[in-house]
Amino acid sequence: MVEIIIQYILILLLVIGLGYLVYLLKDNDVNIVDDYYGLHYVILGSLSEGEYTAENVKKIIRIIAQTVKYVEINYGDKDNKFKEEKAIQMARNATNLLCFQSNIDDESIKYLIRLAVAISLSTNNTID
Q: Is 80 part of a structural domain of the chain?
C-alpha cells in the first residue's frame, strides 16, 4: 500500500516539475520552435540575433560537416587530437568567410565538430 502511495506522489512531483519547466520557458520568452536543432541557446549563443537564422545555422552545420569529412578522409590515420585541432582551424576559416559581425567561438565549433563526428560514418572498423 505504501509503495502505491509513493508512486502516486512521484508521478505528482513529475507533473509539477514539468509544469514548472513550461512556466520557466514561457517566463523567459524562449521560443522552442525558433531554436533550430536546439543549438542556438547552447552552442551558437555567440551569434547576434540578426545573424541567427535557420539558413545561417544550416550553412554553419554544412561547413562543419564538410570540414569533418575532409579531415577524416585526408588525416584518418592521425591522432584524434590533431584531427580535432585541424578541423577547428579549417572550420574557423570557413565560417569567417560568412562575414558574420560576431565570431563563433572555438568551443562552439569544437562541440559542433564533435557532434558531426558522432553522426558521421566511422572510418575505423573496430569498436573500442
A: yes
